[in-house]
């Protein structure tokens, strides 16, 4: 009996010690403002202890304590996106087909399942002027970059769809910031902005008035370069070259990083729209008859773009997207990706590299399941024998090939 009582008292001491350790761990891991005492608080803390893993956060990524095997290799970039869901009036339904065509046959492998999605309609044109406020930064499942929900500052109607828009979120743009489009900036708007800059007036009223002048600009004014002095041009760039603003290339200083670069006058942004992508303005030809600016892309390619085309200032957000780790196969299925089987693991009738004794593919070149060579294929159109005439310098290819 005495031995039983001693063993029971030691077990109680061990349980109390482990409970104190768990309480101290929860106190360190819990967010500020959570209840730490009382009956309800204790129950809440114990439930959180069982469900919320320890999160390790460094400057770029967030990892988890491996309380389950699926959390051991998870690595997620740090983001400040909102979890309230999309703005429904700016979305449309996405109908999935599982990689099948109208006859039900698989035409695209490794596609199927996944969480339901809605397509966000983004404004790549940015034709509307005026000051717009960033309401929130959102996650978009249909692209690698984050998106920013904008609301026009000169309207009071929350239910008006025209007052809201989505854009690709630039890096370091956060909730409450103001962005503006100067793509149709007229001569009168330039004079108004430079006059305000010379007086030190950078208020939103001046920017909104200049935006009203932008919307009244004609197509001829838009296509003709403005004759601006170097002092006025410097003042203009000081108040307009900010992340998220849209400007014609002729008004962007050399060395500026841009994204959503247009290729046609009055066209939408086409280049550098994925996460972390950008182009750099390296030259502006200001001589007589010169109409092009030189843009250097991340691949090393330098190409000519009309100076009247527009681009957005800054780098696309979520630059560490390519370094994340899903951690488990189920997370790929959530994204709509089905498993991929290697050709050497198949039978001979299923793949040119399949079959054989052992795991060797033999002296065979990599091929598709239908026998076509799968590597080394040209990715540019062979329409122009001498290449794209707008490309000044070709991108660096593997083994120095051009």
UniProtKB/TrEMBL annotation:
Gene Ontology BP annotations: mitochondrial translation
Compositional bias of kind Basic residues: 375-402
Keyword field: Ribonucleoprotein, Ribosomal protein
One Gene Ontology term of the molecular function aspect: transferase activity
Pfam families registered for this protein in UniProt: Ribosomal_L2_C, Ribosomal_L2_N
Cellular component GO terms held in the UniProt record: mitochondrial large ribosomal subunit
Alphabetized Gene3D superfamilies for the sequence: 2.30.30.30, Nucleic acid-binding proteins (2.40.50.140), Ribosomal protein L2, domain 3 (4.10.950.10)
InterPro entries, per database record: NA-bd_OB-fold (IPR012340), Rib_uL2_dom2 (IPR014722), Ribosomal_uL2 (IPR002171), Ribosomal_uL2_bac/org-type (IPR005880), Ribosomal_uL2_C (IPR022669), Ribosomal_uL2_dom3 (IPR014726), Ribosomal_uL2_RNA-bd_dom (IPR022666), Translation_prot_SH3-like_sf (IPR008991)
Domain Large ribosomal subunit protein uL2 C-terminal: 241-373
Region (Disordered): 25-50, 87-114, 345-402
Residues spanning the signal sequence: none
Domain Large ribosomal subunit protein uL2 RNA-binding: 99-181
Family designation: Belongs to the universal ribosomal protein uL2 family.
PANTHER family in UniProt: LARGE RIBOSOMAL SUBUNIT PROTEIN UL2M (PTHR13691:SF5), RIBOSOMAL PROTEIN L2 (PTHR13691)
Protein known as: Large ribosomal subunit protein uL2m
Organism field: Wallemia hederae
């Amino acid at each position: 009996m005495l031995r039983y009582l001693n063993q029971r008292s030691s077990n109680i001491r061990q349980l109390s010690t482990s409970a104190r350790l768990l309480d101290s761990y929860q106190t360190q891991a819990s967010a500020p403002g959570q209840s730490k005492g009382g009956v309800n608080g204790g129950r809440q803390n114990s439930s959180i202890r069982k469900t919320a893993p320890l999160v390790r956060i460094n400057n770029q990524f967030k990892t988890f304590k491996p309380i389950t095997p699926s959390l051991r290799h998870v690595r997620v970039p740090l983001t400040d996106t909102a979890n309230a869901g999309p703005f429904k009036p700016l979305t449309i339904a996405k109908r999935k087909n599982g990689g099948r065509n109208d006859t039900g046959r698989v035409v695209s492998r490794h596609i199927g399942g996944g969480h339901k999605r809605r397509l966000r309609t983004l404004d790549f044109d940015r034709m509307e002027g005026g000051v717009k406020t960033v309401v929130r930064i959102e996650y978009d499942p249909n692209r690698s970059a984050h998106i920013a929900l904008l609301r026009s500052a000169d309207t009071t109607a929350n239910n008006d769809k025209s007052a809201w828009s989505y854009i690709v979120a630039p890096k370091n743009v956060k909730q409450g910031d103001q962005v503006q489009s100067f793509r149709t900036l007229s001569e009168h708007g330039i004079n108004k902005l430079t006059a305000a800059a010379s007086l030190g007036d950078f208020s939103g009223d001046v920017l909104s008035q200049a935006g009203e002048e932008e919307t009244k600009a004609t197509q001829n004014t838009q296509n003709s370069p403005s004759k601006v002095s170097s002092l006025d041009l410097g003042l203009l760039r000081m108040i307009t070259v900010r992340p998220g603003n849209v400007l014609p290339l002729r008004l962007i200083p050399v060395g500026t990083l841009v994204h959503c670069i247009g290729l046609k006058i009055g066209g939408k942004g086409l280049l550098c729209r994925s996460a972390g992508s950008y182009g750099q303005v390296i030259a502006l030809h200001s001589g007589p008859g010169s109409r092009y600016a030189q843009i250097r892309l991340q691949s090393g390619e330098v190409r000519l773009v009309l100076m009247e085309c527009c681009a957005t200032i800054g780098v696309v957000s979520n630059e560490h997207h390519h370094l994340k780790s899903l951690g488990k196969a189920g997370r790929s299925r959530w994204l709509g990706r089905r498993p991929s089987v290697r050709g050497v693991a198949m039978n001979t009738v299923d793949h040119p590299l399949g079959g054989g004794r052992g795991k060797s593919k033999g002296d065979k070149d990599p091929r598709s399941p239908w026998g076509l060579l799968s590597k080394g294929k040209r990715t540019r159109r062979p329409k122009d024998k001498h290449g794209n005439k707008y490309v000044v310098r070709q991108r660096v290819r593997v083994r120095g090939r051009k």
